[in-house]
Structure formats: structure tokens, C-alpha cells
Amino acid sequence: MFIHAVSHYLPAQVVGNDHFTRLNGLSDEWITTRTGISERRKAAPGENTNTMSIEVVNHLMAKADLSTVDLIVGATYTPHDTIVTLAHVVQNHLNIADIPTVSVSSACSSLLNAIEIVEGYFALNKATRALVVVSEHNTGYYNEDDTVSGHLWGDGAAALLITRERQSDRDLTIKGLLTGGAAHAGKAVEAVVLQPLERGVIMPYGRDVFQNACVYMPKASLQILAKFGLTAADVDYVLPHQANLRISRNVMQTLGLPEEKLISNIQYLGNTGCAGCAIALSERWDSFQPGERIVVTVFGGGYSYGAMLVEV
């Protein structure tokens, strides 16, 4: 499989740490020391997961022809509508009839689950050109008064055109990916939850999330590398789920890699959920050089995890 093009969309409003200092007394130093986050984006009134999905697809259409897409996979854990999913609104927007249109939700690891669904459709010869859209409207659900996790979240979306055959010499080759569930581990089913009829996103066991993310992301990374006879030393960049800069640095330390090989946008975007890694790919797309290898690794509440190896 090949990633032919990728785009991202960010709401215009920037929310700095000073907002939370005024709101609940959390200082900029306190937030940045614990999370690495200095600012994040917030959707405007009228914006939501579905509208951001349409915006990011419009951005992608400026880079690639989407008229022959034969599969749409959407991913989010912050849906605007649980019936008319983001995948449906994208199909409607593109006006493409009679193609598979599905959505998936595995918390922050949903990006790789969505790409794995594409892999299955390709393997079964049911599709050849897939549009993957990941979009999160965290601020539509969060409780910003929550001093445990209210300051973590940001909004954003990304879209990827994935093809079964190479389209250009700038395509990223998806060498392989794996995903897994870790709901048996630690406080998995209660560590971080979003119950819309309750209080929104809460994280009563953040330390457990931290510890398991630091275990599963490097573990998955090494597993996908081993499938191709590679080690961490063969990697040019690591792109971990953008949950916490301390987690990302811990992952790099476990892999024995310098921070110069870390791709990170959490500092200025916050935790953008399953969209974070795809946004970062879009941001860095033009800087990747032929022959470089990138490992994308994710971890989500619930718990779920995954890793993907791509080459330029």
C-alpha cells in the first residue's frame, strides 16, 4: 500500500496555557513540565467533527484526484453524529455512489485501525483507492474545568489517500502495520473514558495510561521492525501518538533513539486524538527524503495500540 497524499485541517482559534491559568490556576510551567503542551486549537461555534472532515478533504482535493475513490474509512472517538458518521458526510460531499463507507473508533489508536481496514479491503480486491479521514472535536466533549485532563485536548483533522499501486515517486510505502487490544492490562477500561451522558472526557487513572503507553508503543514499534529484519537503529523518525511529550520522550529512550528522530506536534496542538499522527505526517510531508524510514506508533484508551512502518 502507498500513501499518495495527506492533508490536515486546524481550527483557527489558538488557546494558550494562560487560559487555564485564569480558569483554574494551572500555570504555564506546570502544564508544560507535565505535558509539553503550550497551546492547542479549538473548533469555532458551528465547527464539529463532520465539518472539519469536509474541510480537510477539500484540502486533499487540491493535492490529489478523489473522484475515483472506491472506499472511505472514517475514524474518531468524538463524533458529531453517531448515525451520520464523518465517513457518510465525506461520501455525500464527494458525491461518490455505491462504495463501502465505514467508520471505526478505537480511541487514539483509530488511525492505524482505519488503515488496517483499508489493507483488508485491498487484500480482498474490494477496493484500490481509499480515503481515510481522521477527525477529533475534543473540545466539544471535554470539561475544561477538570484540572487533571481539561488542558490536554485540541481539535483537528487529517485525510490520507491510500492506494494499492504506487502513484508517484513521492508516495510513502506502507511496508506493514499491526494493531492490538490491551484491554486486559492495568486500569484499561476505566483509566480514561468519554461517556457523553456523564461528564465528557475524564482521566481518573492518568498514571496507568502513561505507564502502559510507554510499554506498548515501543513494543509495537520493535515488533513491526522485526518483521522486516530491522532494528530501531534503522529508523530515521518515530512518530508516536501525540498524548504527552514525556511519553514520547520515554518511547524514544526505550528505543534507544535520540530526540532528534522524534516527530512531535503536541507542543502547539495538544492531544488531537487519532488525528495527531496524521496531522504530523501532513506537516512534515515535504521534508521527508527518499530512503527514509518512519515508524508511526499509537496507543489509545481502552486500551489499544499499533505500529506502522513506512518508507519514502
TrEMBL record:
Sample GO molecular function, one term: 3-oxoacyl-[acyl-carrier-protein] synthase activity
Statement: the UniProt record of this protein carries the keyword rRNA-binding: no
Chain ranges of the Beta-ketoacyl-[acyl-carrier-protein] synthase III N-terminal domain: 104-169
EC number: 2.3.1.41
Bilayer-spanning residue ranges: none
Sequence ranges assigned to domain Beta-ketoacyl-[acyl-carrier-protein] synthase III C-terminal in this UniProt record: 225-311
UniProt name for this protein: Beta-ketoacyl-acyl-carrier-protein synthase I
